[in-house]
Design goal:
Elements: H1 8-22, H2 28-35, H3 40-65, H4 71-77, H5 79-85, H6 93-103, H7 108-113, H8 119-134, H9 137-143, H10 150-164, H11 174-197, H12 201-229, H13 249-252
Bound molecules: pyrroloquinoline quinone.
Amino acid sequence: MTEPAASHAGFEARLRRIGAERYHDLHPFHHRLHGGGCTPDQVRAWVINRYYYQHSIPMKDAAFMSRVEDPALRRAWRSRIEDHDGTDTNEGGIRRWLRLAEAVGLDPDYVASCEGVLPATRFAVDAYVRFVREKTLLEAVAASLTELFAPAIHARRIEGLLRNYAFANDAALSYFRARLNEAPKDVAFGLQWVLDHADTDEKQDAAAKALIFKTDVLWAQLDALESAYVLPARIPPGGWVPGEGLMSRARAS
Ligand SMILES: O=C(O)c1cc(C(=O)O)c2c(n1)C(=O)C(=O)c1cc(C(=O)O)[nH]c1-2
């Protein structure tokens, strides 16, 4: 076996540098959202579009697991699906996200229908699912490693939303609190798996490229929101129009 150019530590540092330079915590839309600068409709647009990501993540993980021949790897991975879809004792991330939708005044059935999701959001998220279906398992696991950087943005988001928006409370933000508990185990496993399996220069390069691809998937979703809903707003055909999908008065009371 050829020796990799970089040790585990050196390769991990390379992956973390990709996050430092390209993760979506750097995007102006997130700065606006967390800093209290979003209008209620901009927050709603974010909730609607981000739901499409949430609803696709378990399908992505099921696509991954369908390709894994090693029972031990499937066993380590399957809690990701349960974290989002729920179990008998855990309502799951998708339900929690819909609670956030209600808190910002949206009809959860509308949000769950995925109507009004921006075309560019669909393209970006679908590309991630397809990537995981088609690329090597190493590239698929490496792409999930943006989650290395997610706990910091979730903590910042909880703090920023609570400070700046009337809708924000512990129930509305329970999705992010749950992720703070769930993500570290996934990320520790995924990182170790990538470090162990990227055992040649070529594999390290492929894993780094997969992580860059994933940062692009996340960035493109925020670019889509910025273009459609931040002045000069340009909502593309099919995109949510403010006023649509709101909770009915009866439901809200
Ligand atoms: O709010 C965020 O910024 C953020 C980012 C990411 C990410 O980095 O992909 C995920 C999540 N949240 C998240 O909640 C989540 O469940 C999740 C799963 C995955 C994945 O690729 O498997 N990423 C993310």
